[in-house]
Write a structure and sequence with these properties.
Two copies of one chain form a homodimer.
Chain A: H1 4-7, E1 21-26, E2 31-32, E3 37-41, H2 46-57, E4 61-66, E5 78-81, H3 85-96, E6 101-104, E7 111-113, E8 128-134, H4 138-144, E9 150-157, H5 161-172, E10 176-181, E11 193-194, E12 196-200, E13 205-207, E14 211-212, H6 213-223, H7 225-228
Parallel strand pairs in A: 1-4, 1-6, 4-5, 6-9, 9-10
Antiparallel strand pairs in A: 2-3, 7-8, 10-12, 11-14, 12-13
Helix pairs in contact in A: 2-6
């Protein structure tokens, strides 16, 4: 079909996204120890913001739930700012029933201090132990409650990436998982570029060359087509 | 003296800063748990960057040693980027002998994990303890090694501010300490404004109204005049 060529031109179109309700989570969470100290991670939020922007451009209704990041809100996207893993869960839960797709790029803390102090804890001589408890596994929770929603997870792993990705798809009832190797310099956390592998529920995987987070956002949304058309 | 009036006009001048070597530390530190997770604090670096810029404008040679922040380098200032408390110590130590003034605005972690993992630690069921050890007290170390240097510390306290400030001046051999109350909304961490009290070694203290970090930077440098002129 000669017209197919036009679809890959400079104005890409993913018509199956038009009018879809998409929830993107992004950024790190901060788990508060006291008014000064917190536990966090290196997520910059760039991947999630790029996906939110790309989906909005394709005509989706996008809500972006984000931890503390220094990024401007993409035009036309509804943004909800949160701090902790608990805040993230509380923001996402009431939205979940209504959405068609969740893309969870947020690096949500697995552990949170079991006590938050109202005043700055004074240092003292000697060592210190911070006792932490598990946070709620948000993606696992969404997987258990899954109805019509397409569920896409991310994995920032430093080893055994594919093994872990496959296990996570099954365990959390996901449709797709996007893995990036955060060990490599110049990609991943805080960088503008990334190198990802997409793992699908049907055990297919697609590896992408290093490229901008904006380009990868578009490729990720492209890969969703069979899922939206009910043949993933 | 009628000419004194002119000195407080729109082009303020602090001639005692001209050619002085000034070291400013700024921002938070990040104490690394694994390639993804870290412990940090809410310092934005804005106060330190404002002081570095103000001092440079007055003709000082300014080196700015900063933890991870999202701020542009003030023109004419030499910037050294660091991550952890240990990096901060290693960057400051070799510069100390040569400088006339150190202003330590950095919020350096008091504790660091006693082990850094080369791979992301997998979460597991149940609780977790992060065991931490004390970092080197950089300001205390500079106080012990003090020669010609003027030493200014900061205190981000949430209670008993003046009591703590006075004790810290004596204990760390400082010339001045700047205290801000990080409990109040709209000031302090991450904000553009701040409300500070300056405590001097002679037990005098000066409280400033809430104002921009740029204006406070100038007031702080003004208060250094007697110290540079050998009569503080």
């Amino acid at each position: 079909d000669i017209f197919a060529f036009l679809d890959t031109g400079p104005s890409p179109s993913l018509p199956y996204l038009k009018g879809k309700k998409i929830l993107v989570s992004a950024g790190p969470t901060r788990e508060i120890i006291d008014p000064v100290r917190f536990l966090s991670n290196r997520s910059s939020g760039k991947t999630g913001f790029a996906i939110a922007q790309a989906a909005q451009t394709q005509g989706a209704e996008v809500t972006l739930v984000t931890g503390p990041v220094e990024l401007p809100t993409p035009p036309g996207v509804e943004r909800i700012d949160v701090t902790s893993a608990k805040d993230m869960l509380d923001a996402i839960t009431p939205l979940y029933d209504e959405v068609d797709l969740v893309i969870k790029t947020a690096a949500v803390a697995d552990y949170t201090p079991n006590e938050t102090f109202p005043h700055k804890v004074k240092k003292s001589d000697g060592d210190l132990s911070v006792n932490m408890v598990r946070t709620v596994d948000i993606l696992g929770e969404l997987g258990r409650r899954k109805d019509q929603q397409i569920l896409v997870g991310f994995a920032a792993e430093t080893n055994k990436v594919s093994e872990y990705a496959e296990a996570k798809i099954a365990e959390k009832n996901l449709d797709m998982i996007v893995a990036n190797n955060v060990n490599e310099a110049g990609i991943g956390f805080a960088s503008d570029d990334n190198k990802i592998t997409i793992f699908r529920r049907d055990h297919e995987s697609i590896e992408y060359d290093k490229q901008s987070k904006e380009d990868l956002a578009y490729h990720l949304l492209e890969e969703l087509q069979p899922l939206f058309e009910g043949d993933g």
